[in-house]
Specification:
With about 210 residues, this protein is an alpha+beta fold. Helices cover about 30% and strands about 25% of the residues. The radius of gyration is 23 Å and the shape is elongated.
């Protein structure tokens, strides 16, 4: 796009890739997994591999009755978690096993997830998270939708051309950058539909 293949650089491509991530609030890195975590009966502490995550968004539990809808668990700060545990104790001081409602996090890249109430039966879970972004190179594909590879190329070309001493190149750079940023909203809407606690799907919105 710059008219000079020798100007191509992964540093400019990765700069464009990161900028797309920042300006779209990392929407294309939103992921969901039903394999990272699962709840077992009478077990209250689990490990969660967070090395693949930029940020944990939510933990959901699939209910075993009715429409088997997803219900989001509430994260509780460690200092307040014990109060949630105590509120679930019976008159004899024993915990009542039933669907979990709260969790606390501990540890590092492999985190400890402690839940309460303690599960009364196995439950399917879903972990929503923002994935880590890896630098692009000859062996690494972008995580943006394939239809938007040209957007990365357009923005990277704009970054290259804006360093030129030629007025025509700098004018073209502004045009490329403007065109690329104008496509971000469409990319966010195209990534995937929002997941919700129920079965319906709505158009993706920007994370804030």
């Amino acid at each position: 796009m710059t008219g000079n293949p020798s100007e191509a650089s992964y540093s400019d491509v990765n700069r464009a890739y990161r900028e797309i991530g920042r300006l779209t609030h990392w929407n294309f890195l939103r992921k969901s997994s039903q394999t990272l975590l699962s709840f077992q009966a009478s077990v209250k502490t689990y490990t969660l591999d967070m090395s693949v995550m930029r940020r944990l968004v939510a933990i959901w539990l699939r209910q075993t009755t009715g429409q088997q809808e997803w219900r989001e668990l509430t994260e509780v700060p460690p200092a307040l978690f014990e109060s949630k545990v105590l509120s679930n104790l019976g008159p004899d001081g024993t915990a009542t096993e039933k669907p979990p409602e709260f969790y606390k996090m501990g540890g590092g890249p492999v985190a400890d997830v402690t839940i309460t109430p303690t599960p009364d039966t196995p439950y399917t879970t879903r972990v929503d998270y923002i994935a880590v972004i890896l630098p692009l190179d000859i062996d690494t594909e972008p995580l943006t939708p394939a239809d938007y590879d040209d957007t990365i190329a357009l923005l990277a070309s704009g970054y290259i051309l804006e360093r030129s001493s030629e007025d025509g190149d700098r004018l073209l750079a502004r045009n490329y950058i403007s065109r690329a940023t104008g496509q971000f909203g469409g990319m966010v809407a195209d990534v995937h539909a929002n997941r919700s606690a129920k079965m319906e799907r709505t158009q993706q919105i920007w994370l804030r």
